[in-house]
Backbone:
């Protein structure tokens, strides 16, 4: 069971957290606001913004509440080049080596709406597609191998300040990187993915997988990722497996370990509409 | 104030000959989704948590009242999370229907034509938030046809893609969507977001290039629909929308 522990923060830790918020995101908080430690996070929050970090890995969260296409601080409407340059600058501030950035993309988020006549289900008015904001998304590689679960995602305000930021870029054990490189060799030497029924192999790649940004555990593994496609191209959601060097599926720790669920009996049909198979 | 929530997740397709390959992450994804709603101090209440053959096509169909089944119908709780296969058109057109594909031991057929058969929030229905992690059942080009589904339903989330731009079987989308929407959770209260913001951040986890995360909301006016799409949170307890408008937003993986 998790016991929240508030207030377990010494002065130097609090100062360091505030400095990080200022240095990374230009977020400055009133001295009267406390830095709160709870479970595996540190957070400082005001009515206008928050800045938080995980204590068990390099993971930061930041938000200006005035950020948004319909909010007072707006969204950045400048060129993509400028956002990519901002990303490079941010990575430098974060201490992320340039060669760890596998790719950086500017994603465009759109909105649209229609009015429908409920009697006829016909569209009677259309508000055309418009761009709501752009989001910068950076992916990671470590010594040449992809780290699928790491990312830097942020959006900028109209004044080019960080509107929101999520960085999940944990330190990786050397042994994991070494194993991932070994697996890369295995793949290039013709490692055979296990066969799946009614699906065929689409891609095989070695890399590193770890637990997500919001979570109570940090767990990381080298893995060979196999993506399969259904033999029926109309069936969506592709099977994806992460195997270790022995071809055994890799298992990451999960938040669900913290809750207890009893096994359920088989569900029984209770109503007439539930026709037997 | 908490919400009543359910999950229905299908990993096993092959053994029953339902057409699609197995999805080993779908059932654990349901567990991940439930864990945040359970750990939240919002006092959320679990209504049902069926997996594999115990998830039925009838749970999502209005006709016959299967969606109101107190033992697993999708229109019985306030929040329903589905993980499993969907059906994709390659490519979809503006009038293309969207489908879920279950593999049930009852409640046949397994295929659900969402726009034709799903009606949420009507009659005794409660569903306010429908979270679909099934690949294609929310094609951007055909979202206007979702209007009849919103009979009180506030917001639905999903993905738009095709055989070349698909979602990958992963626990992490549902896990993180849940963390962002469950209400206060120890250590991570600060991440609580609107449904729209949460899915725009999490709906592109483990998806292929060209696949989109999509959020759609209903409202009485254009402004109301947009406001719900962008700002409504699961724990807000807003009243059901009068559905005259639907608004959607989407972001696409590069």
Residues:
């Amino acid at each position: 069971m998790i016991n929240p522990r508030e207030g377990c923060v010494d002065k130097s830790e609090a100062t360091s957290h505030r400095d990080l918020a200022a240095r990374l995101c230009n977020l400055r908080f009133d001295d009267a606001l406390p830095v709160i430690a709870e479970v595996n996070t540190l957070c400082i929050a005001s009515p206008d913004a928050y800045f938080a970090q995980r204590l068990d890995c390099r993971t930061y969260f930041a938000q200006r509440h005035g950020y948004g296409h319909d909010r007072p601080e707006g969204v950045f409407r400048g060129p993509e080049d400028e956002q990519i340059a901002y990303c490079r600058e941010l990575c430098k501030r974060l201490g992320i080596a340039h060669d760890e950035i596998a790719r950086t993309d500017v994603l465009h988020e759109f909105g649209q709406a229609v009015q429908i006549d409920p009697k006829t289900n016909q569209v009677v008015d259309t508000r055309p597609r418009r761009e709501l904001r752009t989001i910068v998304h950076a992916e990671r590689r470590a010594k040449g191998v992809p780290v699928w679960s790491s990312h830097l995602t942020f959006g900028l305000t109209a004044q080019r300040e960080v509107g929101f930021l999520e960085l999940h870029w944990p330190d990786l054990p050397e042994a994991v990187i070494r194993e991932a490189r070994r697996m890369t060799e295995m793949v290039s030497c013709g490692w055979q993915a296990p066969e799946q029924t009614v699906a065929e192999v689409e891609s095989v790649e070695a890399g590193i997988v770890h637990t997500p940004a919001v979570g109570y555990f940090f767990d990381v593994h080298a893995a060979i990722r196999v993506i399969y496609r259904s033999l029926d191209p109309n069936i969506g959601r592709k099977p994806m497996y992460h195997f270790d060097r022995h071809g055994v599926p890799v298992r990451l720790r999960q938040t669900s370990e913290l809750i207890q669920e009893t096994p359920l009996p088989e569900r029984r049909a209770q109503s007439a509409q539930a026709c037997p198979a | 104030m908490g919400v009543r929530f359910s999950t229905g997740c299908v990993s096993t397709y092959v053994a029953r000959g339902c057409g699609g390959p197995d999805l080993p992450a779908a059932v654990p994804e349901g567990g991940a989704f439930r864990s945040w709603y359970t750990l939240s101090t919002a006092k959320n209440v679990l209504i049902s948590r069926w997996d594999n053959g115990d998830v039925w096509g009838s749970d999502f169909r209005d006709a016959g009242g299967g969606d109101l089944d107190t033992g697993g119908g999708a229109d019985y709780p306030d929040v329903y999370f589905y993980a499993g296969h969907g059906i994709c058109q390659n490519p979809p057109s503006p009038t293309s229907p969207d489908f879920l594909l279950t593999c049930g031991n009852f409640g046949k057929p397994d295929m659900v034509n969402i726009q034709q058969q799903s009606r949420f929030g009507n009659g005794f229905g409660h569903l306010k938030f429908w979270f679909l992690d099934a690949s294609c059942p929310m094609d951007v080009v055909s979202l206007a046809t979702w209007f009849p589904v919103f009979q009180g339903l506030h917001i639905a989330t999903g993905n738009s893609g095709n055989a070349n731009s698909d979602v990958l079987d992963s626990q992490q989308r549902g896990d993180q969507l849940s963390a962002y929407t469950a209400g206060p959770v120890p250590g991570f209260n600060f991440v609580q977001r609107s449904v729209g913001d949460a899915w725009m951040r999490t709906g592109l986890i483990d998806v292929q290039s060209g696949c989109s995360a999509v959020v759609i909301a209903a409202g009485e006016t254009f402004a109301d629909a947009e406001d719900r799409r962008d700002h409504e949170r699961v724990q807000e307890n807003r009243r059901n929308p009068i559905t005259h408008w639907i608004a959607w937003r989407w972001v696409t993986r590069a």
Observations:
- The first helix of chain A runs from residue 11 to 25.
